[in-house]
Amino acid sequence: MALLIFLPAYGCNESNNDSRTNAGNLPDAKSSKTKVVTTFLPVHLFTKAVAGDVADVEILVNPGTDVHEYQATPDNVKAIATANILVKNGLGLEEFLEDTVKNAQNPKLVEIDASKGIKVINDIASVEETKHKDQDHKHEHTDGNPHVWLDPVFAKQQVINIRDGLIAADPGNKEAYQNNAAAYIQELENLNNEFQQSLNTTSNCTFITFHDAFPYIAKRYNLKQVAVVKIPEDQLSPADVQKAINAVKKYKVKTLFSEPGVDNKLLTSLSQDLKLTLYPLDSLENGETNPQYYFQAMKANLQNLAAGCK
Ligand SMILES: [Zn+2]
């Protein structure tokens, strides 16, 4: 493959800016930097934090697109074909990836699995099962629940995996990766402390979600998630509403959490009927591509968890 020919850098080394994150929008002049392709927002944020300005970091699943049912584009294949490194969340979340990587035919590609070594939750007991079981099974994550990035402690593990993977693939920039990762990890540790302090009086608080994204954060801080819907839906079905009502009867539910993109009018009236307050809780599958966005969104999550579980 002619991909590793050293092309002169045409002075395009301006620092990492967000216009470069779109995998379909490569700058015309080839950068001499290591090119890292990431799958979706959380691993993109972590990789950008570790890479700083020594590597170019792109994203395949643009924010606003659902990673759970994502279909790869020809631009995604091109991005992987010309990349040095690919960073994924793993745990079966990126179902589109295997075929896309195959189609890209890039034998030099180094893959980093950000979830390596993380102990996953397979238990789906707290999810309210639907009647249409086989429908759900189509989307079931065979490798366990993939939403590990929503626990700051596992996020730290992901940053460490990304750091070590980048160093192994690009040892020339080892020091930068180490320093950048150390700064971000410090922020993640501070965040974990904030969660522990704010949620130490809300033990066993049970909350309902409409996306099975929060079992790790619940487990870490002694809360209990009951997911009525596994993967976010554009609209709640009458069956989902019934499941929420059943869950409230079955558990001592303190609050309901919803994400942007879910039918909020229906949720609002449901929360009124159930006499439970509805708060937003962000799975970070969508949002801004600035690495600090993780902390911004997670601090908002903490406020809402604390308010809902008070
Ligand atoms: Zn999800």
UniProtKB/TrEMBL annotation:
Keywords: Coiled coil, Signal, Transport. GO terms for molecular function: metal ion binding. Residues 174-201 form a coiled coil. SUPFAM superfamilies: Helical backbone' metal receptor. One of its GO terms (biological process) is metal ion transport. InterPro entries: AdhesinB, Bact_metal-bind_prot9, Lipoprotein_PsaA-like, ZnuA-like. Transmembrane segments: none annotated. Belongs to the bacterial solute-binding protein 9 family. This is Zinc ABC transporter substrate-binding protein. It comes from Anabaena sphaerica FACHB-251.
